[in-house]
User: Fold this.
Amino acid sequence: MAKRKRTKIGRGETRAAWICMLPSLLGLSLVTYIPLLAVFVLGFFKWNGLSDPEFVGFANFVRLFTKDPYMFDSIKATVYFALVAVIGSIIFSMIVAILLNRKVPARGFFRAVFYLPYVLPAMAVYLGWSWLYDYNHGFLNYLITEAGGSRVMFLENPAIVVPSLALITVWLSGNLIVVFLAGLQNVPRIYHEAAEIDGANAWQRFWKITMPCMTPIIFYNMLMSLISSLQVFVPSFTLTSGGPGNSTTFLSYLIYRYAFTASGRLGYASAIAAVFFVIIGIFTMILFATSKFWVFYMGGDE
Amino acid sequence: MARGNAFASKRRNERIAKIVSMVVLVILTLIVIFPIYWIFRSSLMTNGELYAYPPSFFPPAWRFDNYAATLKEFPFWIYLKNTMTIIVPAVLGATVTATMGGYAFARLHFRGKNFLFALCIGSMLLPSMVTLIPQYIGWTRILHLDNTYWPLILPHFCGGGAFNIFLIRQFVMSVPRDLDDAAKIDGCGYGRILTSIIVPSIKPAMIVVALFKFIELWNDLLQQVIYIHSQDNFTIALGLSLFKGSLKSDWSKIMCATCLAFIPGVVIYLIGQRYFVEGIATTGLKE
Assistant:
């Protein structure tokens, strides 16, 4: 009797669980994992989206590593952008979070200002910044000429365009600041008090207590901003069209151009997307592998 | 005496540190807000005024009629309506289905739960760019929904993304289980428990999910570029791109359009600010 009752409850629970999980299961399968497998399969086909797909074996992959005029420039540009953007964003947002974590007046206001750029639509953000970067009339070139320098082609000089775009990404890193700030507030106060009694100064307390406690959060922020920076697309599309030269033909933009503009080479673009997946995977794994040397988890508490 | 001096000098150092950090913070704040101010100030000037050297920090006259002129060429209201036609159902769908998924992960037992949870977390690390082409083929070649809003709306009815499911799960886990058990004893089914106990307790988290989803879709350009082709259906982002292309260097009007595009996001942010901070803090911290 008791046993039957329990299984009945169990069955009701299972049914409820599957009903609740149904949308998420559809999402995980149809929107995420099946397309992920499909991209690897499509990479073996030649297909313009109209005629029947034609199986070509490894031809796409061979081609993109040997003959493609954009591929290596594109990988270089993407990695370069991601490194500058991630390092810049992490350092900037950590500094701001540390400053905000002190007992400053009107902290809510300051935090709101730093978060504000993040809620502006990307398209408008890049358009606005292109005006600040304008060669003849842009504000930044006004500052530079006033300071006695010569004008800079922020978006037209292949040596400068990637850092220029990465700077906009740093400007947009308000969400990292909020995560860091929350992390700083969770550093146990008792550690600081104990260290202070032992005579540690603020500088020592920061490096010996705050930073180690913050490493899991730095790791989380680095991971998230790395993945999103490697996928940078909007600035190439709106401002630079991948140029000058190939200096901003980021991989996302290259995939877009092959798949969705005139040529419509869906199979070939899928092969690039598959390679792109592997590249992002490698960077993610490198980050995870290094984490055991610098990320400290406080034992037991959580 | 020496001890007192040490104390006093420590207090003085603290005060100096406080002032220095406040000054640095104010400077950084000004730097961050300056581009927005500059864009806004440029939207209130004529092109002649914009090209003057040195540039004036304040508009010589506040030409709000620039906006009226811009609105004649830039159908902002139609774009806004189109954008909202995508965002509102997508946000609702994501919030409801993420709540269901998060509840199941937090509270219910079912076979394969750990495996599915791992898949869910794993998909957070999966770049959306990689799955773009197969999704596109699915929507356009299999379902024939090219140039409609469906490909931009329906995916959000599928759990609303791993991040949001995870966020809801974290919040549901913080609701005391006793409440569920009490309701169960009173004869409530799982559906009733979800709607009348869990949902009221995690309302802030649901608002966070809705806000995140809004910002995510509000920021999107790539998906819209791929699926929307006819200008009647253009969103704000697409319209802005078109507008810039047609004007080239009429910066005064482009800055007006840019400012118009800023407004809805800022309004939503100001309304939901408290929830944003709470939500990000929770997801960033809990393992």
